[in-house]
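2024-03-11 09:14:02 INFO worker-7 job=invfold-0412 stage=load source=structure_tokens
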């Protein structure tokens, strides 16, 4: 494992990159361009979620807050934290416009500004693979959870979205296989550059792509870090688009070949 506890430059690079992405990211997700998230991954996450009515929840790496709002609408009392102040500003503006009782603050998941055992549950939607020192982040989340509390998170699937992934298509353009490589390359902050797949050309010409530092870990490393933090792995889902959804939203059809996301729920004993 290549976690580097003292690498302040790496941590700065993560917050600087996300701060630089935040304005365009907010605009694009609110315009509905994150199809995987909206059509497949968030619905699967919510379907897997235990009843959170009345529970105190913390959303780690909340971004502009769309998923934090989903949890608040499921009647949880939510707090959202993110390392990028611009995301927190947009999340707060939305909260002021449509109050759901969510508290937001700018914070690093590695140093959560909360007392021990303060939350009934925590969530993290597609943020854990974007952070360095995930083993320490897991310990920090374990610390702020009450006994019997749970942490449910989703990440890019360690096996099927390693640093290299490419769809193989037939002559009709349908995805029939997926090439993956570099699974064992322990990347620690390499910057990946991309747009949402279905971003219209006109919008592409006007915006800079996202630059996202990536911290890929193998499946075994994730399971090792989960165990080291003290959690029990309670449930796991690998979302696959239904035939209907794949026909309706062609972008997500590749999840019928291999998943893009891994959703897990961990329990603090
Ligand atoms: C892919 S975005 C996901 C945003 C949001 N959860 C969603 O589902 O739309 C990853 C988020 O993780 C945040 N992030 C990355 N490293 C972080 C850290 N160390 N502490 C808190 N947030 C972090 C980024 O700023 C970004 O908002």
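2024-03-11 09:14:09 INFO worker-7 stage=emit residues=269
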């Amino acid at each position: 494992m290549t976690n580097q506890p003292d690498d302040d430059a790496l941590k700065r690079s993560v917050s600087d990159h996300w701060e630089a992405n935040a304005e365009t990211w907010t605009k694009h997700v609110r315009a509905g361009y994150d199809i995987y998230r909206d059509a497949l991954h968030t619905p699967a996450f919510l379907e897997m979620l235990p009843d959170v009515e009345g529970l105190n929840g913390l959303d780690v790496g909340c971004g502009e807050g769309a998923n934090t709002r989903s949890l608040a609408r499921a009647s949880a009392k939510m707090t959202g934290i993110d390392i990028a102040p611009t995301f927190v500003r947009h999340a707060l503006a939305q909260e002021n416009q449509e109050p759901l009782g969510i508290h937001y603050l700018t914070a690093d998941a590695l140093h959560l500004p909360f007392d021990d055992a303060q939350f009934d549950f925590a969530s993290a939607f597609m943020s854990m693979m974007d952070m360095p020192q995930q083993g320490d982040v897991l310990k920090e989340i374990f610390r702020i959870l009450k006994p019997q509390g749970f942490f449910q998170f989703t990440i890019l699937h360690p096996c099927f979205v390693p640093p290299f992934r490419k769809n193989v298509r037939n002559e009709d353009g349908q995805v029939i296989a997926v090439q993956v490589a570099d699974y064992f390359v322990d990347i620690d902050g390499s910057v990946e550059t991309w747009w949402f797949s279905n971003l219209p050309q006109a919008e592409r010409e006007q915006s800079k792509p996202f630059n996202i530092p990536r911290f890929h870990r193998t499946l075994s490393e994730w399971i090792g870090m989960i165990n080291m933090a003290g959690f029990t792995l309670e449930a796991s889902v690998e979302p696959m688009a239904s035939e209907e959804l794949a026909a309706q939203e062609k972008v997500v059809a590749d999840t019928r070949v291999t998943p893009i996301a891994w959703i897990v729920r961990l329990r603090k004993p």
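2024-03-11 09:14:09 INFO worker-7 stage=report msg="Helices lie at 8-30, 35-48, 66-73, 85-97, 134-144, 201-206, 219-229, 243-248."
2024-03-11 09:14:10 INFO worker-7 job finished
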